[in-house]
Amino acid sequence: MQLLKQNFDKNILIVENIGMFKALKNTNLNLKEKVRERTLEVEAKNELLLKICHEKSKVLDVVARDLRSLISGIYSLS
């Protein structure tokens, strides 16, 4: 009878472990999907930031050139 109870208890533990393993596996898959989604979001935002930075550099180049021209004109009048 004791042996039967031990086997029964072991089987319960096995079933519980299988359930926990399945839950852990599902959680792991969900986390992997979230990481993939967030990585795509970060990559898209990074690409946008690089474009904005490039545009900012172009604008600053024009402003700097115009300021140099303006300052040169002012010096030539002095």
Q: What is the makeup of the main sheet?
A: none
Task: State the end-to-end CA separation.
Answer: 112 Å
Instruction: State the low-pLDDT regions, or none.
Output: none
Categorize the overall geometry. rod-shaped
- List how many beta strands DSSP finds: 0
Number of helical stretches of at least 4 residues: 1
Q: How big is the Rg?
A: 33 Å
Work out the helicity level.
Answer: over 70%
Give the averaged pLDDT, no decimals: 94
Secondary structure blueprint with pairings:
Layout: H1 2-77
Description:
- The chain has 78 residues and is mostly helical.
- Helix content is 97%, strand content 0%.
- It has one helix and no strands.
- The N and C termini lie far apart (112 Å).
- The mean pLDDT is 94.
Task: Describe this protein with a few key phrases.
single chain; 78 residues; mainly alpha; 97% helix; 0% strand
Short description:
By secondary structure, this protein is mainly α. The chain is 97% helix and 0% strand. It has one helix spanning 2-77.
